Amino acid sequence: MARTGTDDSIVLERHGEIAVVRLNRPDRLNAFTDAMCYRLIEIFDETDTDDEVRAVVLTGTGRAFCAGADLAAGGDTFVLGEDPATGGAPADTGGQVTLRIYRSLKPVIAAINGPAAGVGVTMTLPADIRIASDTAKFGFVFTRRGLVPEACSTWFLPRAVGISTAVEWAVGGKMVPATEALERGLVRELVPADQVSARAIEIARELVSGTAPVSAALTRRLMWQMLGASSPEVAHRAESVGIYVRGVSDDVREGVAAFLEKRAPEFSDRVSDGLPDLFE
């Protein structure tokens, strides 16, 4: 395992081809700050351009995943200045993080090792797979703080658990136990707290083993963008472009040859060289 980065509130570790991004303020239950927001965005920029990274695991240090926004400023925590560019409302920091994760070119697994509230849970919604500790709790607590949901969660949450559950959890603002989160589809599986990171890394490796990095990146993008498509015809067109441009690639020749020769493929196309635009 290799550790990189200089901001100790977010730790970036490498476990072979898997990058592990760890929220690292355990004395504050990993409460979220603006500095953490900007560092997370930087890290996802780094993992996107590093061809040695095939997938990203997002987790927390200590007994919590993330307690939500750091409330050190008390009642003024959510008093924000105007956006200097527009003179209007600034982009919420949680939304900036979730959009960056949404745009990731590598699969993302959220390993929720303990309680997750506010932005601590909404930042996990653009992850492709979420697993959690059997002691985790989840809180979309915004109405109990006089706020509204943030971090694009009114788009992501209904797509993950359905509109009825999303409204129930977001309007009521109650803490949701891990078993209910599993039953409603927020998380895929529950494991003991000391096994969450290891299990997430295992899932990440299963996800990328034997797959072409460029094809994996394009497939992830297709899946997420088609959630908002107006009709299956949009998907048909994008997939047709994808088959057309990837069909002549070295990766396809290698993938077919490896299959016929009954060996593991060695794909050469790199994500860092850029992806074709499938959404003409």
TrEMBL record:
- EC number(s) per UniProt? 4.2.1.17
InterPro entries (alphabetical)? ClpP/crotonase-like_dom_sf, ECH/Chromodomain_protein, Enoyl-CoA_hydra/iso, Enoyl-CoA_hydra_C
Q: Does the keyword Nucleotide-binding apply?
A: no
A GO molecular-function annotation? enoyl-CoA hydratase activity
Source species taxonomy: Bacteria, Bacillati, Actinomycetota, Actinomycetes, Mycobacteriales
Q: What is this protein called?
A: Enoyl-CoA hydratase
Q: Which family does it belong to?
A: Belongs to the enoyl-CoA hydratase/isomerase family.
A single Pfam family, by name? ECH_1
Which UniProt keyword terms apply here? Lyase
Keyword set includes Magnesium? no
Q: Superkingdom of this entry's organism? A: Bacteria
